[in-house]
Amino acid sequence: MSLFDKFAPLTAGYRKLEGRKVNPFNIAFDVILSPTEAMLKDRHVLLLGTNNYLGLTHDPAVIAEAIEAIRSFGTGTTGSRIANGSYDCHRQLERALAEFYGRKYAMVFSTGYQANLGILSTIAGKNDHLIVDADSHASIYDGSRLGHAQVTRFRHNDPDDLARRLRRLAGVPGDKVVVVEGIYSMLGDTAPLRDLVEVKREWGAYLVIDEAHSLGVLGATGRGLAEAEHVEAEVDFIVGTFSKSLGGVGGFCVSDLDGFEILRVASRPYMFTASLPPSVISATTAALHQLRSRPALRHQLTENSKRLYSGLVDLGFYLGPQPNPIVSAIMPDAETACALWTTLLQAGLYTNVSLPPATPRGLALLRMSVSAVHTYQQIDHAIALFAQAGRAIGLIPRARARRRATYASPGGETTIAGDEAQG
Amino acid sequence: MALSAEFLPIVWTYLTESAICREAFAAAPKRERERRGTLIAMIWSGLVEIGLCSAAMNDPLPSIRTVVLETLRASTGDRVELSDQTNIVHELGLDSVTIMDFVMEIEDRLDISVPLDRIAEVETIGDLVATLRDLKGKG
Questions:
Q1: How many pairs of residues across A and B have Cβ atoms under 8 Å apart?
Q2: Do the Cβ atoms of A361 and B33 come within 8 Å?
Q3: C-alpha angle A139/A143/A148, rounded to 5°?
Q4: Correct CATH for A5-57+295-422 of 3.40.50.720, 3.90.1150.10, 3.40.50.300, 3.30.390.30
Q5: Is the confidence metric ipTM above 0.85 for this complex?
Q6: Out of A246-250, A398-402, B20-24, least confident range
Q7: Which residues in chain A touch residue B101, judged by CB atoms under 8 angstroms apart?
Q8: Which residues in chain A touch residue B93, judged by CB atoms under 8 angstroms apart?
């Protein structure tokens, strides 16, 4: 008997992957050449799975700020905001975020994961209720579990199911807090936010939206899905991350609810962890400035996403329901996902494999994320490699590409491209 | 045949368990709950007329245990013998998300919500039945 016996089924699955030449869950890049290119040993690869939506990781202005901050303030803060003090840059970033979102309050956390942990575990107390979308990110589940509220999940993107669950709680004491995401990280679909907001309002619940994958991606000024759907006033808390469109690491929450600041001494994932290094904070402030002052990046990202999405649909791949920067090809099984991933990598294209239980409904996914700084040539090259690899492993027909149902159906509703995906 | 309100939950159950009906509902405008009600009634009376749904009316409220077993069989197939002692994780090999998804089916059928910490406590089918009885009793 060993301490790790309980992981036997997981170990068996992982061993299978380790038996492959390259393990999709254990890859290390030797050189990052740019937001879209890297070296794996001596192989040059095109990066299509980094969440680097705006390509700001290598932005000269962002890098300059980070270097300046390290020179002036050192490599780390060596302590927590509460116990060891904030630096002025932490406050500055919080003010910049509050101003960007047009909200009174903003709090910065050391990771996006901790932002969900810190907010969800704290705002919903012992007799309160968290109702989370079933496809929520692990950090939402973990944040819910860390607190003492009763947690239930509602069917993914189903306002009627949310309403049923809130109805069952009618008359039960305690606040009700609904948690959804802007863009869901596995299939790249957005929440039906206007409908959800209507339900939330009808039942007097609070609403938290995690815009991790939609900040800098959606909305007239890049604030995310709530802005795009014109319902920001109805969203009580917006949570987000610095590690995707802003190219750094860290998380935040903004809100207009008075009393918000008490969370600084109530939220344990905020209090009992070291604050972000000045370089990360200054880089993030600079990246936020770039995000705001260069809307062309966001527009290019939309164009690039559509180009990749329609290219893969044309080839006959089954994709998530909407052409957002997360483009996921639905694979018949985990083995095929890994086989396609390996074939693509050998041809010089890096993507991600996503497997259950991290994925909804037991789906095996070959997941990609598009960047604003991908060129059309790079995207077309990626599509060509998908055609080659897909045919090589017998996943798509060898004959010329078939045209499939696309994201724009006559009713304007979105559907999953390809029928089998509905199962 | 007129549709009486007490049958609606059962109708709902039968309709949502059929893949064809599920798609029909997915295609319907999402937020029009009233229209959805009418749609249920229409489909229901059609099904009754052609004699497909009489079984439902003869068996109005299945027991919690029956609901659990039926729902589990739908996700595991008939290949496994199910009893109160069956361990859901080890014997049926369901991962955490699959278990939460199948509890969701049961929640719909019984019109209750099962908090996630209660699901986490469940090991066997017997545990689950006991938890559901407890929650249903409270409601």
A1: 52
A2: no
A3: 160
A4: 3.90.1150.10
A5: no
A6: B20-24
A7: 134, 361
A8: 9
